[in-house]
Write a structure and sequence with these properties.
Shape: flat
Strand order of the largest sheet: 2-1-5-4-3
Low-confidence stretches: 347-360
Helix content: 40-55%
Largest sheet: 5 strands, antiparallel
Mean pLDDT: 83
Number of helices: 25
Length: 835
């Protein structure tokens, strides 16, 4: 190797490695060890503080007993001192507590009984420090604190060592309670740590030195191979450059997703100069991503074609056909991409195919039987007047009325008839309604298809069509605008069918369509906010229909009530793998009436939960369902529940109840839910302990992203290839719930909460956008996984196989997980010190 190359290698590789080792060693002695020593000392002080607080609490118990008259005051002091005298802790159980009064006089010392009852005003350690006097001064000034001095080693009075004690005043009795640590213990820990670090540093230095020697030795061979590769690359580049230039179509040479060469024909087609395209990414120029394009190639030895769009330099889009051929370039897999603009005829054929597909979809929908769109009939007797018929239509909110004579339907009057024949013709409304009716009534069987009904209505130029049941009786009517709307909107059809269902089995069949709908929406590029909103709307419609059917069976409710949902359903963020989280809020009643009402509502709730389970909404494993008597309560009891969760300060209870704070009204009296929400906001206002505990799950969330930026799978198996997406979403939804409650936002949806927080300047626009993108990515990934599982006839869950993700998805996933740490940092800053 020439001297110049050897010098360059030493400067670029060897010297930085040596500097890195030196910096590593220096960081150990200048940063890590001092920080460790400081942290260990702070930890010891924290431990002493907690231990002293425990002893202080014990003294306070005896004082309270004395105040209640259960113990004489002197006996309480004596018993408290004896109790603390017996407390031992530490590795050898020889660490202890001592007590003086504020004179100071020794009240209790387990190893120095000779000092008990003695004045300690002049007592000093071997260094001359009057430690007990200083302890009294510290507690009088600050209430608690630390002092350092010299003292005997535990129970060995012959050995004097430095000691650090934590003291706290118990004001009611004028006591000073203290305990301490021996600084020698801390120094021994630090000394052992230094020894281990030095050994590790030495081993690392030796290993790096060996590696550097090997690298230098191999550099001669590598340099030789590099020169040979450069020569081959030069020849290969020239060959492919000639091939690209000779192409009659716009052509690109792609290597590692970047354009390394483009011919002049492509420049003319796109408007870019050749120099502008050097190292440009494929995804920035075309409407299809490189991963999507190459991922669909089944046989690498054949040319693969795909339609897409070209984004020109002026922003215009051209429809094109991409032809991809894979080649080996300088030992790497590259691609030659030929771009050909679609001709006017090809664009026409494409549009025709798209239109044909849309018409076919519409035709498929129109082959449904008309019974799904039938409305109930509004009827009146033929003897009634025009005015009476019009009033009946107004009262029934109907736009048509069927005229009945002796049990037979003989005609029809519509809003249009009243306008054109009565108002425009100045006809007296006291005339008989049969004078303005349209007859005869045109009818179809209820099993006729929708397209047949639409053809009849257009042919006869009518807006209403009667429908006959199996016995030939008119059972309802069809309205033209319903048919047209149905023809145009499959989602509206689904919602209409849900509202018309009469059995849970029908609803189960309708619910099975949701994955198909979600798949279509996902593949069409709909944003996840719309998709989850549609899923929630469908779920809400099913819940409302189930409740309505249950009410028909159980009878009218004895009082006002509201059916609420919690968790992801409460946040309107349901996917395809969800269970039931619901409850009932009842109107406050007298004790006698409430006992009767509870029996009714528990029976109602049992039917609702059972029917939902039959449809596909699994029972909640934690029994957070309305059928559980605990979660069917009156409004006052629910208020007490939230009061307990918010004010008792029990972190375990708060974490268990967190899903209840996402409650949302689905059915019944909404004012009950609004009143409960207002109550929660009033209770939570300025409750710092509650918010501190509510923030704990966010602060303690363990990301699957390790220190090296790798996703390591679930928490129990570091080698797992699957990650729970729901758990990855948790810190985001919990973060937004935390701040939404603090800001008294009524919204429960995470994105709505984020927008509300942004409007109030709680989060800035950049954080809002990060949250929006994270929610969109994780939800889309979750839906994609679940749809795939359902297609494979597997039960849907929230686990994504990392091996199934593209590099782009995996990179985005890592970015989202890293953003979670920023949310945790924000929560720690705002809520950690609120205990």
């Amino acid at each position: 190797m020439p001297d110049k190359n050897l010098h360059r290698f030493f400067i670029s590789i060897v010297l930085p490695s040596i500097l890195a080792i030196a910096l590593y060693v220096l960081s150990i002695f200048l940063v890590i060890l001092p920080a460790f020593e400081s942290n260990r000392m702070e930890a010891k002080k924290e431990m002493m503080s907690e231990l002293t607080n425990t002893a202080w609490s014990l003294v306070d118990e005896y004082h309270q007993e004395a105040l209640l008259g259960n113990l004489p005051g002197d006996s309480a002091r004596y018993l408290a001192a004896r109790r603390i005298e017996k407390i031992r802790y530490g590795d050898e159980y020889k660490d202890y507590f001592w007590i003086t009064d504020e004179v100071p006089v020794m009240v209790m010392h387990p190893y120095r009984p000779d000092l008990i009852g003695q004045s300690l005003t002049e007592y000093a350690d071997p260094g001359g420090k009057r430690l007990f006097v200083e302890a009294v001064e510290v507690v009088k000034r600050d209430g608690q604190g630390t002092i350092d001095y010299l003292w005997q080693w535990k129970d060995d009075s012959t050995r004097i060592v430095p000691k650090l004690s934590y003291v706290r005043e118990y004001a009611p009795w004028g006591w000073v309670i203290g305990t301490g640590i021996y600084l020698e213990d801390v120094r021994l820990e630090i000394r052992a740590m230094k020894t281990r670090l030095l050994r590790v540093a030495l081993v690392i230095t030796v290993v790096i030195s060996i590696i550097l020697g090997f690298v230098i030795r191999q550099s001669l061979r590598i340099e030789t191979r590099r020169r040979e590769a450069e020569d081959k690359l030069r020849l290969s580049r020239q060959k492919y450059k000639t091939l690209v230039d000779a192409s009659s179509e716009g052509t690109l040479m792609i290597l590692q997703e970047k354009i390394i060469y483009a011919n002049l024909k492509f420049s003319a087609l796109s408007g870019y100069e050749p120099g502008d395209l050097q190292n440009a990414r494929f995804d920035t120029l075309f409407g299809i991503g490189w991963e999507a394009l190459t991922g669909s190639i089944e046989d690498p030895n054949k040319t693969h074609s795909r339609e897409s769009t070209l984004i020109c330099q002026d922003g215009a889009r051209k429809e094109i056909v991409l032809s991809v051929s894979q080649v080996t370039y300088a030992g790497q897999l590259g691609s030659i991409v030929a771009i050909k603009e679609l001709s006017p005829q090809q664009r026409f054929d494409k549009d025709a195919q798209s239109l044909s597909s849309e018409l076919q979809s519409s035709l498929d929908l129109m082959h449904q039987p008309v019974r799904t769109l039938v409305r109930p009939c509004t009827t009146c007797d033929s003897k009634e007047t025009i005015g009476e018929a019009a009033r009946r239509m107004t009262r029934k909110k109907a736009d048509a009325v069927f005229i009945v004579q002796e049990g037979t339907t003989i005609g029809l009057v519509t809003d249009s008839d009243l306008r054109t024949r009565v108002l425009a013709g100045s006809l007296d409304s006291s005339r008989a309604v049969i004078e303005v009716m349209t007859a005869p009534v045109i009818a179809l069987a209820e099993d006729a298809l929708m397209y047949e009904a639409l053809l009849v209505m257009k042919e006869k130029n009518i807006s209403h069509l009667a429908v006959k049941d199996g016995a030939g009786r008119i059972s309802g009517c069809l309205v033209l605008r319903d048919l047209v709307g149905f023809q145009q909107n499959a989602i509206a059809l689904l919602m209409h069918e849900i509202a018309s269902a009469e059995q849970p089995e029908q609803l189960a069949r309708l619910y099975s369509r949701v994955p198909v709908l979600v798949r279509a929406l996902t593949e069409s590029g709909s944003n996840t906010e719309n998709i989850t909103h549609i899923i929630s709307s469908v779920n809400d419609a099913i819940h409302r229909r189930v409740i309505a059917l249950a009410l028909e069976t159980e009878g009218s409710p004895p009082c006002r009530f509201a059916f609420v949902v919690m968790g992801s359903e409460g946040r309107m963020e349901q996917t395809l793998a969800t269970d039931q989280d619901n409850a009932l809020v009842l109107e406050n009643l007298t004790e006698e009436k409430e006992e009767q009402a509870r029996g009714y509502f528990l029976a109602l709730a049992g039917r609702i939960n059972a029917d939902l389970h039959r449809i596909g909404y699994q029972y909640c494993k934690g029994e957070v369902m309305a059928r559980n008597p605990k979660w069917t309560q009156n409004l006052d009891t629910w208020k007490e529940y939230f009061k307990g969760w918010i004010l008792d300060g029990n972190p375990h209870h708060i974490m268990e109840a967190s899903i209840f704070f996402d409650f949302r009204h689905v059915y019944g009296d909404q004012s009950l839910v609004r009143e409960l929400r207002d109550h929660v906001h009033r209770l939570a206002d300025r409750q710092s302990v509650f918010f501190h505990h509510l923030a704990q799950p966010v602060m303690k969330f363990k990301s699957p992203l390790n220190l090296f930026g790798k996703i390591v799978g679930n928490e129990t198996d570091a080698d797992a290839v699957k990650v729970d997406i729901k758990k990855s979403l948790f810190p985001i939804t919990a973060f937004l719930r935390l701040y939404a409650i603090r800001e008294k936002l009524p919204e429960t949806n995470s994105l709505d909460r984020a927008l509300g927080l942004s409007e109030r300047k709680v989060i800035d626009p950049d954080l809002l956008e990060d949250i929006r993108q994270a929610l969109d990515f994780l939800t889309r990934l979750r839906l994609r996984v679940q749809v795939g599982q359902i297609v494979r006839q597997e039960p849907p869950d929230n686990l994504v196989d990392l091996h199934s993700l593209s590099r782009i998805d995996l990179s985005t996933f890592k970015k989202v997980l890293s953003q979670t740490e920023e949310l945790q940092t924000r929560v720690r800053f705002d809520f950690k010190g609120m205990e």
